[in-house]
Structures are given as structure tokens and as C-alpha cells.
Amino acid sequence: MGIATVNPATGETLRTYEAHGPDEVERRVAAAHEAFRQYRTTSFAERARLLRAAAALLDEDTEDIARTMTVEMGKPIVAARAEAAKCAKAMRWYAQHAEALLADEHPGEHDVQDSGADRARVHYRPLGPILAVMPWNFPLWQVIRFAAPALMAGNTGLLKHASNVPRTALYLGDLFRRAGYADGCFQTLLIGSREVEGVLRDPRVVAATLTGSEPAGRAVAAVAGEEIKKTVLELGGSDPYIVMPSADVVRAVKTAVTARVQNNGQSCIAAKRFIVHQDVYDDFVERFTAAMNALTVGDPLDEATDVGPLATERGRSDLEELVDDAVRRGATALCGGRRPDEPALRDGWYYRPTVLTGITPEMRIHHEEAFGPVATVYAVRDADEAVAVANDSPFGLSSNVWTRKDEEITLFVRDLEAGGVFVNGMTASHPALPFGGVKRSGYGRELAGHGIREFCNATTVWQRA
Asked: Is 313 among the catalytic positions?
């Protein structure tokens, strides 16, 4: 696929972009390397000033960048504004907290003496230029949640964004320049996926972070492994959403709808598999199906739209194949299961919110990620069966649990194979909380102190008088 802005609501190609050639890529990698040599010595106060300046510019640009995201990948305009606001909030959070998160760590006095030192500490130092390979689904947030901690740690960044969001990618590179960062501190590379390996193998690029598909993660991890370079991977997810008899079913349903169709259902941490105790199954399914069926599908620039188009035509085709396979094998579509019929939506890549029941392990959708507004619902007899169904997945990004019983919470936190357990609420990322998964959802963590330290050299300083 070329580097282009294609409006998913209409299928119209709005603009194509010329990829950066080898000479321009070399210039930008060299600039990142050179900028790091100076930027790594700046104070936390100076880094915080620059990041706050970028946040202020983002606030001013919210309406324009929100419209850009909506036109490029189809998220409802209300959600696009919220994404921009979340990014500015995260930038200010790291500007305020980075120095404390990276403060020297001091072992206990007894341990220092036992090591033979008079003094000892752990000092965090930046690594250098980091390559960020980022996806289209949250085209601003995915980048900022890397860039804010990386820049506050003293690293420099090179962004290879998804090829269908070039306007957003270019905006991000320009944002940090306008905020006053030195040339080379954060740059966008307009390159295709085939050029990623060459950049990652460059000795001046010291590490990489990737959010995206499992095949993309494997490819980057393989190259980085050969080069002995650090990586953080956030890959796919098929998060379970467990509802037990003690839950507030009305609240659970309301949150379930949002959790499934946020970002038009195209979120790695969206709840996708709804695992409901048999005592409340019928009530949940009736309410959930009615709410999903009532959502407004339409133009994402319309303030009243709940669900816009999928970002790519291929993405819709992949989703259709999963649903069709499930129905052929005996699943029932209680709502949706097809494209909209309205003439105004026929040219875009729309798909109706869908609820599937009767799912079995023989169906592809039981094991694969449904990246769109499609929910699968399972009935279980008890908490142990809920855990078994939840863990019967190659993914382990996050999870949702609805119960008022402490013993059930303890069981789910202990036994669910996931990077997060959100109790009586929806999975979401926040700068103060580490984010990442296990199994085929990747490794490493973003956000919080865990995230900022991923791309730091934890240096042991052992000293005698």
C-alpha cells in the first residue's frame, strides 16, 4: 500500500505522498544521532518546558488535528477530539513526573556495605535514537505515549507511522519542532514497511518500540534480536469481559457497548469476548443486543455518529470473513452481521455493530482478533469456567471483570492471563499506570515509571572513597 490519505467514509484518495528516499532517511537518522549527543545532557526542567510547550500547541491545534485523524482513519470526531486532549494530558503528566520517576535509586545501607562499597546507586541514562513503528488506530495517542516519556528521559525519536495516516505523522514531527525542540529530536520518516529493517539495523538506532499486528511485531523483534537491540511490543488483543451474578448488569451493559465499539471497534484493548454467568446471561444479552443495535452508524464527522467506517477496505473484508465463518459453523448474529444498506454509506468501509452467540472453539473468531464492532458472547457456569474461556486465547493484553465479590476479584486477578485486570470498569490506558500484555500480545510496558525506564540504561554506580 502506498503512503496516502484515503477517506474511509467515502473510499476517496485525498492525497498521496512521496516516500523519503535513502538520502533523506540517512539525513534524518544522522540528525537524530547528532541531536541525542546534546539533548541527553539537558536538564529535566528544560525537557519539561519543551514538552509543556508541545502540549500547549496541541491544545491550540485540537480541532484541526481531530479532523485530520477522522478523515484519515474514520474515528468519530468526538473521539478524535478526546484523543488529542488525552495526549496533551499525558505530555503534561510526564513533564511533571519524569524527574521523580528517573531519580537515582539507593540500596539499603547494609547492602551497600555488604557489596564492599562506600556508596552505591542506580542511575538512569537515556539510550539514544529510538525507532517507533506505530499503527493507525490511535494515530496521535500511540505516538505520544512513546514520545512523551522517551523525550523526557533524554532520548530522541524516529517515527515510522502507518502509511494511511501520513498527515498525522507529519503533524507530529512538526509539533515538536514548533515547540522548540532541536532539529533531530523527533522526526517522522515517510517510509514503507520494507524500509524499517534498514533503519533498525543502523548502528545509530539503539532500540525500537512497535504497536501493531503480530506479524509486524515478529518481524521487528527478529531483526532487533539479531542486532541485540531492545524492543517493546504491544500487539493484538482479544480482551475478555466477564460478568458475574453479583454485577450491576445495567452498568455492565452500558460500559460493554462503549468498550466494544470505541474507535469503531478498532482497539487492541477493546473488550471483544463477553463471558457471562448463566444466571444473568439472558438479561445481559437482551440489553446488550438492544444497545448495540441502537447505535448510530454514519459519517464520522457528524457529531451524532456513534460508529464510523473501518479504517481500511481490507480490514472490513477480514472482519466479514470472521463473522461469515462463525455463522457458517453455527453461530447466531443477534444483530448486525452485515454492511449497512443505506445509500449514503455504501461507498465507505462501514460494518454494522454485531453480537454473535453460540461461539465454539472450531470458529476462527474464537481464537482470532475481531478488529471492528463485533462482539462474541459466551455463557459460563462459574468463575472457574469464566477464567478457562478467557484464557483460551493466544492473546493476553487486558481484561474486564464485573463482580462485587472480593473472593472472585482475588481469583480473577490471580488467574487471568493478561497485562491488566479492570474491575467494574472499562480497560483504558492512563499515563500513571503501566500498559502492556503477555502471551502474543507482546512484552514490555508503556506509560508510568515502567514505560519511561524501558528505554533507559539502568547504570550501577559503585563507589569507594
From this structure: no
